[in-house]
């Protein structure tokens, strides 16, 4: 077998073209074979298909690039949950834009490593420009805001708590029951005290409980973590009121806006984030309501000096004399060493769509969520939890218990009809539709509800689910 070609240099594109044609055909064929939002049959069926396609995983003699790509990409596509399908709505699992995915191909082909300038001359400059621009969106009134690119909200939240710890020592975190699980995990990883968790009886942080907790623990260094777009309901904490209480009690504030942060690009909906700029750090995730291939997380701070604690030296990557001679020092831009140039796909999207294009995607998707809520309201056999704050809609069949709701969700998964999430609130278990597909139509939404109502009818009658 000849030496396989590489993806870079001037010869790489010619080597990639026929391979990409094979990949694109396999993506198409696999989606046709799946013919739905998720493969039917559940884990056993998918496992059988993948084992058949990959056996043996390491053959004695290779099958060749086209056969391997065709076989494995087709099998993976056939067995994937497809976030571009209008009935794949369980999670904050976005269908990536084609243009962002194409940019990600270029990033993979060039393969810059974002840990030293000599591995990423242009990519490091592009990343700096992109993160600065995004930081200014969050902190428009600060002269020198900055942002880091992360693997997502979990890493960004962990970094935020790490920076607070480095400023003040073992800070005491305060969060509400609606906070993302990564807050608790970050305190564990960083050796911080367990968070003080206060109630969120209406889905958002209870201000009276926050004030009482801040007062009771005034002798400690406190970090309040608020949420702008909860995982379960998509609700946004009262950011300005929380910021006021933090100012009064001398506490710092971190806002996890992984879900809701991109509302900043929508003139119609950005007011929901009023007070965001008052946080000492903000998490943003563009592989949610930003339509980027994962990962595309952001941690923003109001001043670039706030990131100084992340400085780290490894002489082979950022020697003092190289830095003094003008080579940018990149190691303080992440806790990771090798990093992909994830700024490229973000920058391409920002350039291609601009503010108006991003606003249109956001507004269109939120409108779709409100339309789904209206359909549920007008369906006598379904109950709506509440009208959506962003794009998350909770609903359930009327007069059903939690066991039935869970059974409906799993049955829809097993038969490949729909991918719905689940969320617990104060009054039980709900089906969760997290709408992120701007191409979803009213007919798609009605069909999704029909799947639920027909299955509910079958279960109540004791029939075998269709």
Automatic annotation (TrEMBL):
Keywords: Aminotransferase, Decarboxylase, Lyase, Pyridoxal phosphate, Transferase. This is Aminotransferase class V-fold PLP-dependent enzyme. It comes from Streptomyces sp. 900116325. InterPro entries: PyrdxlP-dep_de-COase, PyrdxlP-dep_Trfase, PyrdxlP-dep_Trfase_major, PyrdxlP-dep_Trfase_small. One of its GO terms (molecular function) is transaminase activity. Its cofactor is pyridoxal 5'-phosphate. It holds the Pfam family Pyridoxal_deC. Belongs to the group II decarboxylase family.
